């Protein structure tokens, strides 16, 4: 049974705390002089009055107050559970005994009993507070351990869930990889099937010259794709659709289909052979060969109106054009490389000649200097003067050699022709840095042409490279080889070259308009008696 609600003594003797009938509250206030709530406290007897002067009524009142106070303490003890029941019984018995003694001994004894009970109550409350603190600490420790265990369990669960997610993701990726491989295999199967069908009509992936061309490879790939589509879509050949064989339309259709495949295979084989036989200068030969093959197939398929469709034939002719175009480019590149190497050899020869001439002049000057010293020591003034003139000539030659070696643009420009080899309306315009420019002209006519070249002009220029380039630009429309620009032949006459030199104020001392062509004219002269003798 709980004590009634009211103000009761706090652990701190200076305050009282409110009890709401079930638990202590946080409300406190200073202890009043008189008890704030019931039950009434026993007022202490005046210290001056002797104990035996208490009346029976006053002693009974004080004893009742002590018993009420004890009841309150028992209720507190019972509520906090800090004492055994036997101990509480002993305490209550002692308190009752003390109350009886207080009634007998008077007000002083009752006051002492109340003070002792109050002190005991404070001790019990302190123990109860300590027990409650320990209980709260233990509860906190238990709650902390529970939270830690719960966190560890949650982390384990999350790790297991992540592992499951990763396993599922790996399975999904593996499935996707398998699906991709399956799709690739199916696509490859389709490609293999299509390739087999194309090969059945003679359309193979043969080597093509334009495959190695950076410029033509993409065009060739697109063209081959178009050719394959034409074969797949049955647009390569055309034939009759109402043919019957032994009175059966089904057998007639099968016969037309088989004949179409056979003749298309023959045509594609001929197209492949034509590509392989194509050269830089025989495109028309290869195209005529393929056209004749198409005409032969049309004659062979007259009974069923079978022929190669014009559109498909044009595609295969374009394939030949790509092959020929690439081969022409390769041939031009080879020619240009050959000309470049020849030019490098020419430059090397010119440098070697200049170096050899420099060494010869150095030796000659040293010889003249030694001779001059000997003549001067003998007192031969006339001989010494001649040696000085020779040394000056050598010095001028050395200056010219050094100038030619340092100025790579300086050299000799030549205009030559070969009537016996090229006719009267063709000249070659070039330049050389050789000390003896005629050596270069002789080399040009050694073995490449049946007759030697005739020189129309051969003159030195400080900017021979510029003069040569000017003439090449002037006669660019008349250039014979417009692919290999190192082939310096032009469809012009010597007169036209002379006019161009004059128009650009090029200094020239000699220019021969008419070639001698001695070997050619002598050969022609010998032809007349031989013809007469044969007649």
UniProtKB/TrEMBL annotation:
Coiled-coil zones: 322-378
Start and end residues of each stretch annotated as Disordered: 27-63
InterPro entries: DUF2510, Phage_T5_Orf172_DNA-bd, SNIPE
Annotated keywords: Coiled coil
Sequence ranges of Basic and acidic residues compositional bias: 50-63
Superkingdom, taxonomy of origin: Bacteria
Bacteriophage T5 Orf172 DNA-binding domain location: 421-504
Pfam families, per the entry: DUF2510, MUG113, SNIPE
Low complexity: compositionally biased ranges: 31-49
Protein known as: ATPase
Natural source organism: Clavibacter michiganensis subsp. michiganensis (strain NCPPB 382)
């Amino acid at each position: 049974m709980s004590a009634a609600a009211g103000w009761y003594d706090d652990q701190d003797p200076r305050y009282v705390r409110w009890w709401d009938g079930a638990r202590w509250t946080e409300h406190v206030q200073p202890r009043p002089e008189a008890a704030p709530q019931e039950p009434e406290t026993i007022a202490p007897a005046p210290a001056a009055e002797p104990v035996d002067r208490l009346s029976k009524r006053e002693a009974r009142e004080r004893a009742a107050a002590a018993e009420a106070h004890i009841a309150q303490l028992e209720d507190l003890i019972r509520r906090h559970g800090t004492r055994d029941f036997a101990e509480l019984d002993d305490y209550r018995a002692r308190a009752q005994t003390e109350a009886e003694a207080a009634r007998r001994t008077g007000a002083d004894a009752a006051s002492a009993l109340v003070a002792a009970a109050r002190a005991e109550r404070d001790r019990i409350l302190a123990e109860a507070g300590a027990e409650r603190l320990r209980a709260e600490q233990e509860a906190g420790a238990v709650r902390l351990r529970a939270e830690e265990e719960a966190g560890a369990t949650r982390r384990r669960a999350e790790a297991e869930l992540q592992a499951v997610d990763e396993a599922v993701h790996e399975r999904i990726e593996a499935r996707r990889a398998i699906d991709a491989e399956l799709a690739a295999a199916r696509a490859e199967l389709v490609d293999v099937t299509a390739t087999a069908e194309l090969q059945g009509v003679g359309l193979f992936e043969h080597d093509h010259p334009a495959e190695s061309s950076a410029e033509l490879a993409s065009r060739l790939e697109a063209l081959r794709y178009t050719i394959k589509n034409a074969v797949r879509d049955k647009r390569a050949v055309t034939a009759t659709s109402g043919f019957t064989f032994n009175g059966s339309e089904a057998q007639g259709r099968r016969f037309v289909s088989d004949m179409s495949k056979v003749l298309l295979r023959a045509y594609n084989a001929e197209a492949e052979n034509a590509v392989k036989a194509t050269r830089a200068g025989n495109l028309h030969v290869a195209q005529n060969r393929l056209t004749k093959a198409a005409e032969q197939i049309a004659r062979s398929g007259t009974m069923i109106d079978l022929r190669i469709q014009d559109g498909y034939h044009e595609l295969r002719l374009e394939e030949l054009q790509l092959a020929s175009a690439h081969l022409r480019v390769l041939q031009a590149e080879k020619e240009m490389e050959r000309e470049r190497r020849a030019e490098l050899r020419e430059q090397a020869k010119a440098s070697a000649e200049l170096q050899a001439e420099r060494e010869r002049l150095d030796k000659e000057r040293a010889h003249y200097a030694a001779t001059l010293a000997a003549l001067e020591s003998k007192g031969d003034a006339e001989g010494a003067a001649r040696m000085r003139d020779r040394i000056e000539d050598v010095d001028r030659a050395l200056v010219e050699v050094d100038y030619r070696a340092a100025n790579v643009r300086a050299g000799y420009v030549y205009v030559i022709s070969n009537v016996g080899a090229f006719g009267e309306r063709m000249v070659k315009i070039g330049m050389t840095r050789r000390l003896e420019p005629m050596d270069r002209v002789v080399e040009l006519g050694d073995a490449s042409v049946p007759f030697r070249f005739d020189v129309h002009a051969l003159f030195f220029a400080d900017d021979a490279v510029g003069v040569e380039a000017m003439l090449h630009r002037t006669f660019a429309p008349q250039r014979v080889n417009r692919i290999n620009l190192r082939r310096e032949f032009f469809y012009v006459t010597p007169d036209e070259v002379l006019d161009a030199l004059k128009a650009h104020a090029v200094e020239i001392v000699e220019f021969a308009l008419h070639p001698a062509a001695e070997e050619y004219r002598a050969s022609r002269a010998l032809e007349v008696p031989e013809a007469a003798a044969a007649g």
